């Protein structure tokens, strides 16, 4: 089927569907006379959009989508794994701290507005407010105190040079290592078990030796952190709760 672009003011759209895994995904074919090639995109509403260039056809567009069904599956999985906003934290909510699930409770300080979890106490304005911003600031500050000394400890132990350590609010990384010797860590590691935080630190330190993820790099990681696979599994299982 060929499309006539000669009188178009807006790109015309035809719809179909394609099977991705066990799901029937709607396909939207959008004609664009300025396009030079077929382009596949996953829309926020879950529709797979295929842009058809001038002279193209719906049949060829469908074949193009079918050839890229694995790409679509990966994109759909990424969307499924993405956190949906931030859940509010209130008195009674459970959060992760040092790898343990702890409950937020009212503080016990003669009626002042405080909350408590584990061994931490935080002052807030009202007990019925969303406590998450205050708790996250507290955890960020705690991580900034505890994580850098751990980095320098391991650096000294493994005879590595580290120029600087920063604790940041990274959105998609647990840590990073620059070529100038700066290690950056995600403050949320304070919510993970100690062995998981240590793994991320050692992982980034091994980048001082290998600025890649080659086989040699992973050999270096395994030499200094024998249980790194267990740490990776914990992170994979809890990533959505931490972010």
Give a quick precis of the structure:
The chain has helices at 58-67, 69-81, 132-157, 194-209, 215-224, 228-242; strands at residues 13-20, 23-31, 39-42, 48-52, 94-97, 100-103, 105-106, 114-117, 120-123, 164-168, 175-177, 182-186. The chain has three domains: 13-81, no CATH class; 94-133, no CATH class; 136-242, 2-Layer Sandwich (Zincin-like).
Model description:
- The structure is a single chain.
- The strands form 4 sheets. The protein has a 4-stranded mixed β-sheet. A 3-stranded antiparallel β-sheet has the order 7-8-9, with helices on one face.
- Helix 4 (194-209) packs across helix 5 and helix 4 packs across helix 6.
- Strand 3 and strand 4 form a beta hairpin.
- The protein folds into 3 domains: 13-81, no CATH class; 94-133, no CATH class; 136-242, Metalloproteases ("zincins"), catalytic domain (Zincin-like, 2-Layer Sandwich).
- It has helices at 58-67, 69-81, 132-157, 194-209, 215-224, 228-242; strands at 13-20, 23-31, 39-42, 48-52, 94-97, 100-103, 105-106, 114-117, 120-123, 164-168, 175-177, 182-186.
- The chain is of the alpha+beta class and 243 residues long.
- Helices cover 37% and strands 23% of the residues.
- The longest helix is centred in the middle third of the chain and has 26 residues, at 132-157.
- The chain is extended.
Q: Supply the number of structural domains.
A: 3
How many whole angstroms does the radius of gyration measure?
25 Å
By DSSP (H or I, 4+ residues per run), the number of helices equals 6
Sheet with the most strands: spatial strand order: 1-2-4-3
N-to-C SSE string, H for helix and E for strand: EEEEHHEEEEEHEEEHHH
CATH class of the largest domain: Alpha Beta
Find the count of extended strands (DSSP E, 2+ residues): 12
Proportion of residues in extended strands: 15-25%
**Overall mean pLDDT:** 86
Query: What is the terminal separation in angstroms?
Result: 47 Å
Specify the CATH homologous superfamily of the largest domain: Metalloproteases ("zincins"), catalytic domain
Helicity level: 25-40%
Summarize the main sheet.
4 strands, mixed
Low-pLDDT windows of residues:
1-12
């Amino acid at each position: 089927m060929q499309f006539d672009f000669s009188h178009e003011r807006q790109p015309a759209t035809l719809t179909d569907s394609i099977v991705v895994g066990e799901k029937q995904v709607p396909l939207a074919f959008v004609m664009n006379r300025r396009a030079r090639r077929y382009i596949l995109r996953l829309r926020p509403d879950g529709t797979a959009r295929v842009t058809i260039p001038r002279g193209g056809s719906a049949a060829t567009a469908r074949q193009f989508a079918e050839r890229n069904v694995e790409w679509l599956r990966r994109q759909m999985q990424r969307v499924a794994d993405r956190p949906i906003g931030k859940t509010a934290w209130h008195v009674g909510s459970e959060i992760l701290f040092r790898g343990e699930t702890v409950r937020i409770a009212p503080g016990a300080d003669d009626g002042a507005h405080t909350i408590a979890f584990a061994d931490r106490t935080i002052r807030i304005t009202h007990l019925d407010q969303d406590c998450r911003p205050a708790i996250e600031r507290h955890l960020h500050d705690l991580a900034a105190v505890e994580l850098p000394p751990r980095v320098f400890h391991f650096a000294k132990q493994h005879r590595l040079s580290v120029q600087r350590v920063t604790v940041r609010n990274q959105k998609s990384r647990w840590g990073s290592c620059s070529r100038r010797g700066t290690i950056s860590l995600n403050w949320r590691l304070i919510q993970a078990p100690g062995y998981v935080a240590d793994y991320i630190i050692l992982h980034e330190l091994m980048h001082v030796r290998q600025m890649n993820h080659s086989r040699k790099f992973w050999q270096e990681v395994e030499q200094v952190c024998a249980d790194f696979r267990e740490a990776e599994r914990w992170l994979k299982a809890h990533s959505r709760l931490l972010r």
